[in-house]
Amino acid sequence: MNALAPAGVSAAAFLDRYAARAGTNPSRDRAADMLRRTGLPRSGVEAWKYTSLRALGDVPFATAPATPDDAAVRAVLAEAGQVVGLDPDMRRAVFVNGRFDPSLSSLPDGVSVGRFQASDADADGDVASALNAILAEDGLVLRVAPGADAGRLLLLSIGVAEGTPISFHPRHRIELGQGAALSVLDLSVGRGAYLNNPVFDIAVGDGARLGHAKMQAEAPAAQHLAVVHAEIGAGGLYDSFTLTLGAALARHEVHVRLAAPGAVVHVNGAQLLDDRQHADLTSVITHAAPDCNSRQTVKNVLSGHARGVFQGKILVERVAQKTDGYQMNQALLLSDAAEIDAKPELEIYADDVRCSHGATVGALDPDQLFYLRSRGVAEHEARAMLVKAFLHDAVDLIGDEVLRATLDRAVESWWNRKDA
Amino acid sequence: MPAITETRDAVESLGQSTYKWGFETDIEMDLAPKGLNEDTIRLISRRKEEPEWLLDWRLKAFQAWQAMTEPGWAKVRHPPIDFQDAHYYAAPKKKAGPKSLEEVDPELLRTYEKLGIPLHEQAMLAGVEVPEGEEARPPVAVDAVFDSVSVVTTFRETLAKAGVIFCPISEAVRDHPDLVRRYLGSVVPVSDNFYAALNSAVFTDGSFVYVPRGVRCPMELSTYFRINARNTGQFERTLIVVEDGASVSYLEGCTAPMRDENQLHAAVVELVAMDDASIKYSTVQNWYPGDENGRGGIYNFVTKRGACRGARSKISWTQVETGSAITWKYPSCILQGDGAVGEFYSVAVTNNHQQADTGTKMIHLGRNTRSTIIAKTISAGQSDSTYRGLVRMMPKASGARNFTQCDSLLIGDRCGAHTVPYIESRNMTAKVEHEATTSKISEDQLFYCRQRGLSEEDAVGLIVNGFCKDVLKELPMEFAVEAQKLLQISLEGSVG
Predict the structure, then answer these.
(1) What family does this belong to (chain B) (predicted)?
(2) What are phi and psi of B142, to 5 degrees?
């Protein structure tokens, strides 16, 4: 409505890197046009009200060198394995600085894997996707045949930047045929100053089930800008969870379309932030068919000067009668300087629906602390118990038990490290 | 069940017509030429015999306004407004300035009589008009604003005895310049937003209330706004200042004739509450909503804000929004004083092609401040209704508390109901709770009522009244009855 959107931050550094391939793909050119026109958003644009990408405009991110430092990669990998307790037998696809590394990967049987095709890139109108579209090189293309159960797959992103800040923009595509099943553990770790900008295009076929447990544990100086576009078929399930632990600036953006009757989506998550971390979870769940069901529980635990952002929208289109939508955001502020900004939003055009949302913000309940203290539990232990219990409620919603246990361990070790 | 009988009677008495306030008063008007520029503002200021400082203030606002663009974030659609195509001053031609009711143009008095606004102090006091079997109502002091000017303010002497100032703001500028100058624009600055800046530049009249220290205002105060003239906008300005330990309850009502064109209403209301003061501000907004095809109606773009400056001060907004083609309105509270309390109770009903984007802002600055938000939204026909609210806990708001509840009811499958809350907390000991639901009238409830012999329309009315009860019970009694009827009428034709 308002044509005079606030001028954004210049995306010139990124567009310069794109100049060499300009004109090779119309959808990439469209994305470049959009970035040139609007720039990177700073807070003030409604969709980016609480998160500014000003920091990105200041850094001249370079393309990652062709061969990464092998020792650094192995060190990061070992550290990640220690913290999360990765199952060494789990099939895995490993990307180093955004490029597929066959030597570290072992792909499951019955799954066809391809490399990213430039023709796949499409901006879909959001800035993070547009940025990905112009600079995407590599990515996983994973198709699970109808009826097949592909088990579990670890999708591991390792970022290693020595000195010069680098950025990488992997573009993944996951398609599940009718009745197929797959669980993905999506883990990103790293070292140094880099920008990881992954985009997922996900299609869940009729009756198919996709579990997507994401754990973002990027390096403290890193930035993480992820987007998921998912479309769910009749009776399909997309069970997603995003655990945000790392990066100085992070945004995870989810766009889900429940496209046929009976589709179900879970967009759950937890943020554990400290110091001056800023993390944003933004989701738009569109009910585009009748009888669909969406569930969202997001919890934030914020210490230090951390800032947590939650923007969740449930859009119920005219046709989507008998929609059942539920959204809950709970934030726990553990320090005086922490900040939470929440915007749970309902946009509803159908009348026969049941939609509700709730949001709470507060500190640890003094009564609960007192109860534990009066039973001889030490203060810091009592706090740990309450915080972990608060988070457990959210992590417990992950359907796949192995992924659930992995994320539970990650929460546990994050807290212990912080507590030490 | 007298409530039902009453609502049903109200609807029956209206027959098919939906907006009974849509008549036009034929009265000689004094109009400023169309258009908006510095000359218009100088003309308004001259007509109102204003001091220099106020003209400067207006011109500053006008400059700010020229540099601003219309806000685009609200969930409303309308064709661009031509701000040059309206009269910014319209006043009934007056003879010598009425001193008492007898001197007021009888045509005007008839208008208010038709609207059911009591302007006759004597009759009211004697209780002559009270039908048998009903208790006499306590008197209400009324400031009646007709287009750009205040026509009459009742009970002024009674109020003056208590030390309460209640008069048109133009008069307050003359008689109490220090008070006006000190508080005008102190809550809503001239450059606050597009429509507030416009209002500051061209506001013509409105009410001024001052309640001195320790005084409990002896009666309810009320302003009644009426747009009558064609091609005019109404820009009234209300300023209420309540000193330490004082309190006041203020009611606001409004109507306009039925016209095919859209008219702009951009008001500003400023409230100031000092230590232990309390202000209760109730609105029944019933501007002409346009016809069933969305032609005509008032654009109601209003800035209302209260500052709880003092410790333990309290501001309570209650609104029933049934009229207007478009409503854009966010009565807010700035809770500065420690232990200050802000409340917002709202019912917004949209039908046909109406659009409403309304809600509140609660800005918690002081320690142990508390706020409560109860918003009920009802959408029918092809209308769109949005609750948009902000709760912000600033770093010093230790122990602050907010509770928000938003419920939406959809009637029919061509309307929309939206909830857009913003929650921002920067204090760990502050506690915020928000909950919202959206649903339709349950078949079970409807069946239960129908089974007991209620028509579908009555049943819906009953259920809607129940849905809104938490808000309606906050209204003063006279308004509550009126509001119940209005709800029923607004939803007429939305079922079956």
Answers:
(1) Belongs to the iron-sulfur cluster assembly SufBD family.
(2) -120, 135
Which chain A residues in 46-75 lie under 8 Å from chain B, judged by CB atoms?
A: 46, 49
Give the three-state DSSP class for B421: strand
Residue B430 has pLDDT above 90, yes or no: yes
Min CA distance, A411 vs chain B (Å)?
21
Q: Which residue of B has its CA nearest to A361?
A: B432
Residue of A327, A361, A387 to mutate for B, most B C-beta atoms under 10 A:
A361
Strands, DSSP E only, in B295-380? 297-308, 314-321, 326-329, 332-335, 341-350, 355-358, 361-364, 370-380
Buried b (16+ CB within 10 A) or exposed e, A180-197: bbbbbbbbbbbbbbbbbb
Does A352 reach chain B within 8 Å, measured CB to CB?
yes
User: pLDDT tens-digit profile of B443-471?
Assistant: 898 999 999 999 888 888 888 888 998 88
Size of interface A-B (CB pairs under 8 A): 124
C-alpha to C-alpha distance for A217 and A230, rounded to whole angstroms:
23
Q: Are residues A195 and A256 in the same domain?
A: yes
Query: What is the pTM (predicted TM-score) of this model?
Result: 0.88
Based on the domain organization, do A411 and A345 belong to the same domain? no
A205 in the same domain as A276 = yes
The answer, for A137 touching chain B at a CB cutoff of 8 Å, is no
| Integer Cα distance of A296 and A326 in angstroms | 6
Tell me the C-alpha distance between B233 and B299, whole Å.
Answer: 9
Which of A317, A347, A363 is the last residue in one of the domains?
A363
Query: In terms of domains, do A312 and A372 share one?
Result: no
Residues A159, A220, single domain; the answer is yes
Chain B touched by A290 (CB under 8 Å): no
My answer on whether A144 and A286 are in the same domain is: yes
Report chain A residues whose CB lies below 8 A from the CB of B418: 345-348
Q: Which ipTM score applies to this complex?
A: 0.89
CB-CB contact of A270 with A215 (8 Å): no
- With a cut of 50, say whether residue A297 has pLDDT above it: yes
Task: Report the gap between the CA of A334 and the closest CA in chain B (Å).
Answer: 6
**Phi/psi of residue B444, nearest 5 degrees:** -65, -45
Closest-CA distance of chain B to residue A314, Å? 10
Q: For residue A73, is it within any domain?
A: yes
* DSSP symbol at A365: -
Residues A255 and A370 in one domain: no
Q: Spell out which residues of chain B touch residue A346, defining contact as CB-CB under 8 Å.
A: 408, 417-420, 436, 438
Question: Mean pLDDT score of chain B, rounded to an integer?
Answer: 83
Residue pair B361/B344 in contact (Cβ under 8 Å)? The answer is no
Domain boundaries, chain B: 140-491
What is the tens place of the pLDDT at every residue in B40-93?
999 989 988 899 999 999 999 999 999 998 888 888 888 888 888 888 887 766
Domain membership flag for residue A49:
no
User: Nearest CA to CA, how far is B284 from chain A (Å)?
Assistant: 26
Q: Does A6 touch chain B (CB under 8 A)?
A: no
Of A318, A347, A363, the residue that ends a domain is: A363
Range of the domain at A410: 364-419
Interface of A with B in 361-390 (CB under 8 A): 361-363
Cβ distance of B418 and A348 shorter than 8 Å: yes
Contact at CB, B439 and A353, closer than 8 angstroms:
yes
Phi, psi angle pair for B161, to nearest 5°: -60, -35
- Domain-embedded: residue A18: no
Quickly list H helices, B48-118: 52-66, 106-115
- Measured between beta carbons, the chain A residues lying within 8 angstroms of B438 are 346, 348, 353-356
Same-domain status, A218 and A334: yes
Residue of B nearest to A303 (CA): B428
Q: Establish if A399 belongs to a structural domain.
A: yes
Number of domain units in chain A: 2
